[in-house]
Specification:
- By secondary structure, the chain is mainly alpha-helical.
- Helices cover 81% and strands 0% of the residues.
- Helix 16 packs parallel to helix 22 and helix 16 packs antiparallel against helix 23.
- It is globular and about 70 Å long.
- The N terminus is likely disordered.
């Protein structure tokens, strides 16, 4: 069954049966344990995204320790940030097979291992493997489940819930910047990374809090979706006939596969019940076989969902607005990451270190970022406001700030621009909401995995590119200008594609009316 039928507002002909039954809403949706999920996601953002936003401190330590070029050293931070996001589609496969809780706990262990091993680095290339790859994959395995679980547990207040949980990035950037500064000063950067590895084990606790909803609860969430969100989804996704036909195509094979799986498990259970008393070994073998059969069924179903989302008849790539969203994500994230990585160096260039030590510019971005996420989330949940329009306005503000930042050479000017960057980048909390409106809750993990993968590619190449431009020109100005222009290209894609889709839909409706 294509889960986005209610989400996108399409009529598949069987909703009357569902609507005729009175459904008691689950108290854990929009309340109860849902707020524990928000707390878990908030802590994940502090420990993962907050730590990555504070890597400018470690970047300076690595430059001094290993005496390598800025471009090469910046690859360590970029690999960590980029791989965290690039592995999104593969983490979607893990979530489909194992669930969010198991995936997050394994990721927490990997992340802590990456930080700890990095304390023994002898060169930058060693950090590529330990911090960039190992810690990066671990971060990705925790980050995506944290976002997906909030989307599953909330319906009416999705934007606010995502906004509150993702404020952990701002809190984390502020706290981790101060913490890493203190630890590097008192104990050295190697011991600082070792301590941070121990702190990262708390990600396993956050994963344990991600209690999964039952399929029945998820179904109830789809049924009680309100009319406002249906209308918003219609406005965002205009490829009605494509998604509708894909949903029908994807439904029958899934039902057939479920029937086959139930038949296999049922035969095993029947054999187990009908077994002769005293055949202990035989019963043990049957139980083991049943466990393996259940595991095989789970893996097959998870892989089938993951495969159909990317390559099947109901592929996410048939939604043209979603494809435009991916193109935007390829250019957007580097514009936010570059200031965090290179601002400490810019401050030193402009001889503003004394003012920056009193109140770091990265901390200004982090603090205002917190308020931006919450305020934009509250505004987007208002009945008369479109999340899509709020998302676009925030993007326009951010790209303007990126293009004007090189023009500011005083601390006050940089502080104002950094504050605007922090507030407008609060649109990150709206990304899961916009994604869910486009594809539905069932496909949120796979779809958001693609989006953050595109963001990861942007984060991977952005800071090294800025460092490479600096090595050539001895200035960061061109880095911000090029990043801003590429970001603007992505925004134009977001504007053009829905307009084209809307025009085509209107022309098709006119042709049908004339016929």
């Amino acid at each position: 069954m294509y889960a986005s039928r209610e989400d996108i507002g399409y009529d598949f002909g069987d909703d009357s049966k569902v609507a005729s039954k009175p459904i008691k809403p689950n108290p854990n949706i929009d309340g109860g344990w849902a707020w524990m999920i928000v707390l878990s996601s908030f802590l994940v953002h502090i420990l993962i995204m907050g730590s990555q936003m504070a890597l400018g401190i470690l970047n300076m330590e690595w430059l001094e320790e290993f005496n390598q070029s800025r471009g090469l050293t910046a690859w360590v931070s970029s690999l960590s940030m980029g791989i965290t996001l690039i592995v999104g589609p593969f983490i979607g496969l893990f979530i489909s097979m194992c669930g969010c809780r198991t995936t997050a706990i394994i990721g927490g262990i990997l992340n802590a291992l990456g930080w700890t091993l990095s304390a023994y680095a002898s060169n930058v290339h060693y950090l590529f493997l330990t911090f960039g790859v190992t810690a990066g994959i671990g971060s990705g395995m925790v980050y995506l489940p944290a976002v997906v679980m909030v989307g599953q547990y909330f319906q009416k207040r999705r934007a606010l819930a995502q906004g509150l949980s993702t404020t952990g990035t701002g809190f984390g950037a502020f706290l981790m910047t101060a913490l890493l500064k203190y630890l590097c000063t008192e104990f050295g950067w190697r011991n600082a990374m070792f301590i941070q590895g121990a702190i990262s084990l708390n990600l396993c606790v956050c994963g344990a809090l991600m209690r999964p909803l039952s399929p029945k609860d998820l179904h109830e969430k789809y049924v009680v979706r309100n009319d406002r969100e249906e209308n918003r989804a219609k406005a965002l996704s205009h490829s009605t006939e494509t998604i509708k036909s894909n949903g029908v195509l994807g439904e029958e094979p899934e039902k057939k596969e479920e029937a086959e799986n139930e038949e296999v498990l049922g035969s095993v259970q029947h054999t187990e019940i009908g077994g002769k008393p005293g055949s202990g070994r035989s019963m043990y073998g049957l139980r083991l076989f049943k466990t393996l059969s259940q595991l095989t069924v789970t893996v097959r179903k998870g892989f089938a969902l993951w495969y159909s989302s990317y390559f099947g008849a109901a592929s996410l790539f048939t939604n043209r607005v979603f494809v435009a969203f991916i193109i935007w994500a390829l250019f957007a994230y580097s514009s936010f990451v570059i200031p965090f990585i290179h601002l400490p160096e810019i401050v030193k260039q402009y001889n503003l270190s004394r003012q920056d030590n009193v109140f770091p510019l990265t901390s200004i971005i982090a603090i205002v970022h917190i308020f931006g996420k919450v305020i934009l989330g509250i505004i987007s949940d208002l009945p008369c406001i479109s999340t899509w329009n709020v998302f676009l306005m925030a993007n326009f503000t951010l790209v303007t700030c990126i293009l004007t930042l090189p023009l500011m050479q005083t601390y006050i000017g940089l502080a104002v621009v950094c504050a605007l960057i922090g507030f407008s980048s609060g649109y990150f909390s709206l990304m899961p909401v916009v994604t869910e409106d486009l594809v539905g809750t069932k496909h949120l993990a796979n779809a958001y995995g693609i989006i953050i993968c595109a963001n990861g590619i942007s984060a991977l190449f952005g800071p090294p590119f800025a460092g490479w431009i600096y090595d050539i020109t001895q200035k960061y100005d061109f880095s911000f200008y090029i990043a801003g222009l590429l970001y603007m290209v992505g925004i134009i894609f977001l504007l053009i594609q829905p307009c084209i889709q809307k025009k085509q839909s209107r022309e098709k409706s006119t042709e049908e009316a004339q016929a």
